[in-house]
TrEMBL record:
Cofactors, names only: Mg(2+); Mn(2+)
Residues binding ITP, per UniProt: 18-23, 69, 85-86, 161-164, 184, 189-190
GO terms of biological process kind: deoxyribonucleoside triphosphate catabolic process; nucleotide metabolic process
CDD domains attached to this UniProt entry: HAM1 (cd00515)
Protein name listed in UniProt: Inosine triphosphate pyrophosphatase
Keywords: Cytoplasm, Hydrolase, Magnesium, Manganese, Metal-binding, Nucleotide metabolism, Nucleotide-binding, Nucleus
Subunit: Homodimer.
PANTHER family the UniProt entry points to: INOSINE TRIPHOSPHATE PYROPHOSPHATASE, INOSINE TRIPHOSPHATE PYROPHOSPHATASE/HAM1 PROTEIN
Primary residence: cytoplasm
Enzyme class name: hydrolase
Reactions it catalyzes: ITP + H2O = IMP + diphosphate + H(+); XTP + H2O = XMP + diphosphate + H(+); dITP + H2O = dIMP + diphosphate + H(+)
Subcellular location(s) per record: Cytoplasm; Nucleus
Superkingdom assignment: Eukaryota
């Protein structure tokens, strides 16, 4: 992803390294909103699709996983980049599946995620997004976290993006899947993390 700051002379060229088209779509949408939109060069974006890597992700805390992925991406690219990790954390399970949610989703699906909490007193959960920015292979990645509270519910809404149908965001009565793009991207874990990243980039 090439981002270009308007309103200032400085422009930032960044690659968003991800294999997830839904993430990319939401990031583009969020960055296009706001008072000072960060514009994504879609022509460049197309050519950058060649840079979508699928590499192994380590085990550890969400921060360790995020740092390692960004470090690896910067090494492979030989330049600045951002990466993003999403965790879905169950209160009753002390934060698990957390960064391993992808493999839980793949193996047991929406019903399985609900069944995991059978017998537990709380269905509370939070979605945690961690953006990592690296200025290059020799730099330590910087992390930006965003968190949205909610609960795990039987699936409602279109199954377009991951676990969206089973995550009901606090105070909304809606699952992420039942929300419009605008609604989700106003309260989402991704929006909150990206807002911090945006502030950081604007301060450079
Ligand atoms: O807003 C979301 N709403 C619903 N599901 C979501 C969301 N955001 C990520 N997800 C899913 C995708 C993957 O199953 C797992 C995170 O794993 P994660 O490694 O961060 O993503 P990924 O491997 O798909 O893409 P990437 O190449 O950026 O690592 O949660
Ligand atoms: Mg991944």
């Amino acid at each position: 992803m090439k981002v270009q700051k308007q309103n200032k002379h400085l422009s930032i060229n960044l690659v968003f390294v991800t294999g997830n088209a839904n993430k990319l779509r939401e990031v583009q949408y969020i960055l296009s909103q706001g008072q000072r939109p960060i514009q994504i060069d879609s022509h460049d974006l197309d050519s950058k699709l060649a840079f979508i890597f699928h590499f192994p992700e380590i085990q550890g805390t969400t921060q360790e996983v995020a740092r390692a992925k960004c470090q690896r991406a910067a090494e492979l690219l030989g330049g600045p980049c951002i990466t993003e990790d999403t965790a879905l954390c169950f209160k009753a399970l002390n934060g698990l599946p957390g960064p391993y949610i992808k493999y839980f989703m793949k193996s047991i699906g929406h019903d399985g995620l609900n069944s995991m909490l059978d017998g537990f007193p709380t269905k509370e959960a939070w979605a945690l997004c961690t953006f990592a920015y690296s200025s290059g292979p020799d730099a330590e990645p910087i992390l930006f976290e965003g968190r949205t509270e909610g609960m795990i519910v039987p699936a409602r809404g279109p199954a377009t993006f991951g676990w969206d149908p089973v995550f009901q965001a606090e105070d909304t009565g809606k699952t992420y899947a039942e929300m419009t793009n605008e609604e989700k991207n106003f309260i989402s874990h991704r929006y909150r993390a990206l807002d911090k990243l945006r502030n950081y980039l604007e301060s450079l």
